[in-house]
């Protein structure tokens, strides 16, 4: 199989698994969102540490300790991803799957704004139009919900911030996740011990099947990440940009057709504006990528022979 096709399949697998997360977290009830979050941190560390042991890849750790800036960035990333994971689990287990999907739909637009204001990148006119429509959709959905869609905004902002930090840190996926979960291990494990001592923990009190599912949170966190990493090194970023919409589409479908969340006409209108904004954004990005490829190919052409 060609590497590019293999990369696309890895990408589809990663985003499909992320998109189906809303089906997993409800299985962990009666565990609360904080308990699930703590187990996810602990078991994710176990999984990625096992992967690194199999790969015999530990040399990076000493290098990282000698680079305080990168280490500090990963500590910050750990704090940000804690917010993202916690809010997402809360959203799914309290009947806000559709709103969480909105957060990941608007995430590319939030990332663009980060690029403008933090990395001093310049936007093309159609990109500005897409960002403006994204802002309009938030206004429409605020009116629809009767409140600011804070779950969507927190998820989009936290995931966008996480991506920005990881981009600056430039550390591999498994290595980065090892450090992030290691940072979170002490508070997460302490909280789980506290729950058990108080008799409120569910890991040892809700049966072996429940304990297995809680431990499985580490596997379902690590596997999509590894698939994404395998895809990212095999396919262009434009392809990754298209594949990323698989996750929120599946989340949205889970919310509407499986969780049966309400979708009044005003909410459909807000989502329609988001989807139109993303269509414009994606089309403009693909057009710019094609133009850049044409320019690069033209620059590689040999100069004509003088007459």
TrEMBL record:
Keyword annotations: Cell membrane, Membrane, Transmembrane, Transmembrane helix, Transport
Domain of life: Bacteria
Listed transmembrane segments: 7-25, 37-58, 70-90, 102-119, 126-143, 149-165, 177-197, 209-233, 240-259, 265-283
Subcellular location: Cell membrane
Domain EamA, residue spans: 6-142
Similarity annotation: Belongs to the EamA transporter family.
PANTHER family, A to Z: ACYL-MALONYL CONDENSING ENZYME-RELATED (PTHR22911), SOLUTE CARRIER FAMILY 35 MEMBER G2-RELATED (PTHR22911:SF137)
Protein name, UniProt field: Protein RarD
Organism name: Streptosporangium pseudovulgare
